[in-house]
Predict the 3D structure of the following.
Amino acid sequence: QVQLVESGGGLVQAGGSLRLACAASGRTFSSYNMGWFRQAPGKEREFVAAINQGGGTTLYVDSVKGRFGISRDNAKNTVALQMNSLKPEDTAVYYCAADATVWGGALSRRVRDYDYWGQGTQVTVSS
């Protein structure tokens, strides 16, 4: 089991940057594929980015490609989401999630495939 705690959210102007961090408890962090999701008011939770256990493979939703970057540090049990060129439509609560898949398992975009979730951190982008 793993517990996830996000940080780094806040208010930023359009075009600005934020770096979200997710700290994980437990000694098996490196066995999880990790993902970031977001949920705007009145909308369903949506996939943003994912990274595999070793950190060598990433996946992004089309709307953030070229602007966001996901990374992980297995020695520190952390995963980060660097967000650049932020837009008002990026405003949402951002969630870190862990997928307890088999080693080498494919990255997933589906909410139901992730087993553990953080409490979320608010990102607000003003125009």
User: Anything to note?
Assistant: The longest strand covers residues 92-99. The two ends are 40 Å apart (CA to CA).
